[in-house]
């Protein structure tokens, strides 16, 4: 059976701690074939964003057109750094009606530096999120996009419902920064589901990208959404426990140690 094709759309990170290259690696490591649309370029160190630039809209839309014959089975969209880029991505996605779309509305880098200004956040909320099969904000992103405080499971449930009201088919609000167990809340149409697991006493960069890209890969294999989320959460847990986001990297390191 041929590997499904998954397109990742977003902004580059020179060190690939997150962003477009990280997502492509995650998709490939999950057994799918990654293709990509570069919507922005960043310069980032391990702790700071030093430069950001969006790709111009015609170039973004031309990249989507180039994918028309690629058999894309799902899209993952990560960090977008201008309102114009958001609108160009939405226009490009219109060429692929019915293809599952996972939107990870990244607003800031891990170090805290902003990746999206207020206009970009507004465009994400008003233009892109309504197209999503599932949107995967963390607590801070959900709060910023909806203009409210999201600090507990009840607020997560309300926020997930609000994203569905905006037009998304489903919303998974991630509670990784809550105290206690790791809890995520899914609103899928009128239904709600809570995913909970024991918190691991370790941290790893890129887990949001890893989760969203894996959900996209699973949807490309025609998994239903709850099953795709379960698989993605299990993968993130394994990555945090081992300190490695990609199985191939872990295998290579074990081989190097044996030698």
What are the SSEs and their pairings?
Layout (H helix, E strand, L loop, with lengths): L4 E8 L6 H11 L3 E12 L4 E6 L2 H10 L5 E6 L5 H11 L7 E3 L14 H11 L5 E2 L3 H8 L6 H14 L3 E6 L6 E7 L2 E7 L9 H14 L4 H18 L4 H12 L1
Parallel strand pairs: 1-2, 1-4, 4-5, 5-6
Antiparallel strand pairs: 2-3, 7-8, 8-9
Helix pairs in contact: 1-7, 2-3, 3-4, 5-6, 7-8
Give a written overview of the molecule.
- This protein has 259 residues and is of the alpha/beta class.
- The chain has one domain: UDP-N-acetylmuramoyl-L-alanine:D-glutamate ligase, CATH 3.40.1190.20.
- It is built from 9 helices and 9 strands.
- The protein has helices spanning 19-29, 57-66, 83-93, 118-128, 139-146, 153-166, 207-220, 225-242, 247-258, and strands at residues 5-12, 33-44, 49-54, 72-77, 101-103, 134-135, 170-175, 182-188, 191-197.
- The strands form 2 sheets. Strands 3-2-1-4-5-6 form a 6-stranded mixed beta sheet, sandwiched between helices.
- α1 (19-29) crosses α7 (207-220).
- Residues 249-259 have low confidence and may be disordered.
Number of domains: 1
Tell how many strands the DSSP assignment holds.
Answer: 9
CATH superfamily: Ribokinase
Question: How would you write the strand order of the largest sheet?
Answer: 3-2-1-4-5-6
- Mean pLDDT across every amino acid position: 91
Q: Which geometry do the CA atoms define? A: globular
CATH domain topology: UDP-N-acetylmuramoyl-L-alanine:D-glutamate ligase
Number of helices: 9
Structural class: alpha/beta
As residue ranges, the low-confidence spans are 249-259
**Approximate strand percentage:** 15-25%
What is the percent of helical residues? Answer: 40-55%
Order of helices and strands: EHEEHEHEHEHHEEEHHH
């Amino acid at each position: 059976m041929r590997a499904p094709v998954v397109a990742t759309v977003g902004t580059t990170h020179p060190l690939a701690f997150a962003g477009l290259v990280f997502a492509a690696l995650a998709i490939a490591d999950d057994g799918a074939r990654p293709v990509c649309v570069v919507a922005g370029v960043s310069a980032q160190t391990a702790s700071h964003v030093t430069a950001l630039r969006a790709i111009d809209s015609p170039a973004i839309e031309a990249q989507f057109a180039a994918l028309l014959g690629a058999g894309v089975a799902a899209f993952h969209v990560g960090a977008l750094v201008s309102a114009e880029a958001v609108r160009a991505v939405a226009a490009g996605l219109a060429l692929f009606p019915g293809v599952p779309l996972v939107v990870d509305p990244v607003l800031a880098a891990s170090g805290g530096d902003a990746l999206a200004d207020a206009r970009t956040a507004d465009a994400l909320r008003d233009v892109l999120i309504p197209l999503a099969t599932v949107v995967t904000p963390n607590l801070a992103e959900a709060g910023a996009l909806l203009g409210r405080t999201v600090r507990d499971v009840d607020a997560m449930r309300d926020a997930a419902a609000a994203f569905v009201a905006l037009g998304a088919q489903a919303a998974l609000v991630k509670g990784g920064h809550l105290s206690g167990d790791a809890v995520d809340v899914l609103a899928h149409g009128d239904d709600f589901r809570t995913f909970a697991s024991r918190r691991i006493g370790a941290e790893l960069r890129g887990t949001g990208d890893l989760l969203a890209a894996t959900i996209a890969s699973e949807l490309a294999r025609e998994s239903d959404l709850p099953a795709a989320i379960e698989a993605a959460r299990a993968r993130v847990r394994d990555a945090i426990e081992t300190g490695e986001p990609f199985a191939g990297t872990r295998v290579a390191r074990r081989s190097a140690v044996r030698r």
